[in-house]
Specification:
This protein is an alpha+beta fold and 219 residues long. It contains 7 helices and 7 strands. Strand 4, helix 6 and strand 5 form a beta-alpha-beta unit. The relative contact order is 0.16.
Amino acid sequence: MSFQVLPAEVSDIPDIVAVHQASWENDPIVGRLMPDVDPIAKYDYDVDFYKRKFETKALTGSVMHKVVETETGKLVAFAKWKYPYSLTPEQQAEKDKLDLGRSYPPGTNEALYEQFFGRLDTLRKKYLDEEKDYFLHLLIVLPPHQRKGLGTMLIREGLAAADRDNARTYIEASPMGLGLYRKFGWKEIDDIVIDMRPHGGTGMASEKCLMREPGAGSA
């Protein structure tokens, strides 16, 4: 079976959400964010999330690629990048309004949301220069298609642009993806550690923050 990387389009959102939900449901942190949310409400929330990313890409630097089966056209993986961008004061004010306008569906673990994404935001402000750096925000592969090199295809697509610009690339990674990212030259710079016991989980869960210098790695 062969695969190809293509730009993602708004019409892909239902398939993107299907891959997103299938891949994240067992994650020790993300899987506990909406444990009691009605499935339809959760689907609608995720559809709205990706719809907004397409609609506001001029304000966020968002660039999305997908991997499809060549023979069938089925979407089996995708990546959401944030390429370097700068905003006018008017655009920044518009973006700030959008950031404040999102609410959680009933049943969301809001305490975990605030703890996890609050820590992510703090680290992004510390390490990420949105006017100069690339940011691999999401890299998600449908479980039956993992370990087939699809993540590598999507990573190379963005890193080619970053290396042309002689730019660094930031990423937040679960333990499962660390080996792949290290091959591409990412180095750990910080981490996120959360005690999941108050949130219905077990023990400690963690993610790593990594930065890649231009041209690093050999994968």
